[in-house]
Design brief:
The structure is a homodimer of 350-residue chains.
Chain A (H helix, E strand, L loop, with lengths): L1 E8 L8 E8 L5 E11 L1 H7 L16 E8 L11 E4 L2 E3 L5 H4 L11 E2 L19 E5 L4 E2 L6 H4 L5 H11 L7 E5 L3 H12 L3 E6 L5 H7 L3 E4 L3 H6 L4 E6 L8 H4 L2 E9 L11 H5 L4 E4 L5 H14 L5 E5 L3 H9 L6 E5 L1 H4 L1
Parallel strand pairs in A: 10-11, 10-13, 11-12, 13-14, 14-15, 16-17
Antiparallel strand pairs in A: 1-2, 3-4, 3-8, 3-17, 4-5, 5-9, 6-7
Helix pairs in contact in A: 4-5, 4-10
């Protein structure tokens, strides 16, 4: 039920990524076999490789922003054909029967979604392995169609950074003319700006760094608000219809809560750790809201990809060879990438 | 433009409440003059008397849960007639032209609502004075009709505690069969239980004190969840459609966030101070939400009063004479009241 393929992975939480080979399951009746062409590098890959969240399993092959071409399909697969451009994001399976799955929100599967790497693979005696490899087999329900008109290598980050920012914008009903703040200009933030702009919002990039202003505007921001500038923050107080907060670490949310209009929401997509104390009065005055959002369901991910195809939206990327992956990790940790590394998987095949 | 009336108030933040007399404005064309029969004692009265929030003005006559009978009306008043039972809550005026006022949410008036006490009175050279007195004059738009079928003295707390808990239950669309948690069994919490129960919700009182269980059930709770009981908290994890959090001080919200279903909201109505750090992951997993809510608009307050009339809902009160007010304050601070003190204002007239 499995064959060996080349990959790059970590033996344990202390190890750099290095070449290894992994078992890959055979193509079952509902499966799609994909020849991986590109895989994005997500900041969460690094946290997981280093076991920062304490639930990592080794050997680990990271990668959940996977682009490739179909090479084979199982007998019950009709939606996918050999040669088609496809993608795989953060999940590869779920129970398909709980209320979350029934509501097309497999990311909240009550039995726990099978993540693309590091989860128990229900179909073989191994845990799942991600996209830093040459080939993957995934249940058809978790394979996405990638629009052929967009740059496929730059489409890879849509599978995580794209859906992570698209889902809250849609779920909180961002619409033409809304004043939308995007806090933080990184992998998530730069997608948030592009997507909110394409939805017709008046986009304000909120950043600590004045030197990011030009780039934010190139990406689609109508304004840049420097969060350290108290006068500017005061001017924008109470004026935002929605704020997408992509800051990846704990921080003080109170100055951003002040920016919200009455009844408006700020959604966290980056900070999975404790945040600084929120002032209750800041929420009570103006009936303001804070919420979290996690990637998106498969149906919504396809909707996002179609939206990106229609608006010709991809990520800004820097293409690397697999042998550069450890250097790339260092640069991600230094926020030194505009705005996402993508691995050219041909470099692993050669 | 003013006459003197008897009142009980504080000279400064160090002073106990004592008899004093205050100027009361004459009845203008849009005004309603009210002979005050009862006034509730809100915990926020104590904070304001002691200047805990730093914005108090003296001499201060507290009280914003006012019940009385109309004694006179201005020439442009047709909705109110002499002898009618009426109420006044936390606000007595607002700009009536900003978007919040246009949306019937005067509590969020962009120019700042005129609070029942301690705000600039636009109609005379003084600040406003609250309900610990015998007579008040209020613009007709801020006077509420009290259903004649309910116990008028026990209706007083509806004007603050009632609307503070009714508004979020309605705004977040609590409906028949919803599992609703009410955290904290005090002045706000006991109203939350009664109102959510009357809306048909399955009400769970969430409290640290097992000895409150019996009373919670008497008030309408279907279940009592002891928040210190980790096993019980785990059993209820991810099961609440809505949580009304009435805890009046900073606290750890994370155990309560865990109780919410996917996409469910916990609303803060009590804690106007910094809360302990929220764990971002707790919001992100399950797309959960926290929000604040502040009293309610005048239209909604009337709706709440009509609802209470229909369901015969009032507050559980302990009636006191005005001369007992300082002792009552001490007991409120010791959480030693079931569940609201109401001053019999006849005791000030004698």
């Amino acid at each position: 039920m499995s064959k060996k393929v080349n990959a790059y992975g970590a033996k344990d939480s202390q190890a750099d990524l290095e070449p290894m080979s992994i078992k890959r399951r055979d193509v079952l009746k509902d499966d799609v076999e994909i020849d991986i062409t590109y895989c994005g590098v997500c900041h969460s890959d690094i946290h997981t490789v280093k076991n920062d969240w304490g639930n990592s399993v080794y050997p680990m092959i990271p990668g959940h922003e996977i682009i490739g071409r179909v090479t084979a399909v199982g007998e019950k697969v009709s939606d996918f054909k050999e040669g088609q451009l496809v993608g795989v994001g953060c999940m590869v399976d779920s129970c398909q029967s709980c209320s979350a799955c029934e509501d097309d929100m497999e990311q909240f599967c009550e039995k726990g979604a099978t993540m693309t790497y590091g989860s128990k693979d229900e179909h073989m005696d191994d845990h799942t392995h991600g996209g830093y490899t040459t080939s993957i087999v995934v249940d058809k329900k978790f394979v996405l169609h990638i629009p052929e008109n967009i740059d496929e290598k730059a489409a890879a980050p849509l599978l995580c950074a794209g859906i992570t920012t698209y889902s809250p914008l849609k779920n909180w009903n961002v619409k033409k003319g809304d004043k939308v703040g995007v806090i933080g200009l990184g992998g998530l933030g730069h997608m948030g700006v592009k997507l909110a702009d394409a939805m017709g919002a008046h986009v304000v990039m909120i950043t600590t760094s004045p030197d990011k202003a030009e780039d934010a505007e190139r990406l689609g921001a109508d304004e840049v608000l420097i969060s350290k500038d108290k006068d500017a923050m005061k001017e924008h107080q109470g004026s935002f219809d929605f704020i997408l907060n992509t800051i990846p670490v704990g921080h003080d949310m109170n100055p951003y809560i002040n920016l919200l209009k009455r009844d408006a929401t700020m959604v966290l997509v980056g900070a999975v750790e404790p945040l600084e104390p929120v002032h209750g009065g800041g929420l009570i005055m103006g009936r303001k809201r804070i919420a979290g959002s996690l990637i998106g369901g498969i149906k919504e991910t396809q909707e996002m990809l179609d939206f990106c195809g229609e608006h010709n939206i991809v990520s800004d990327i820097e293409l690397i060879d697999i042998s550069d992956i450890n250097k790339a990790y260092d640069r991600v940790m230094d926020s030194d990438v505009k705005y996402r590394f993508v691995i050219d998987m041909a470099s692993l095949k050669n």
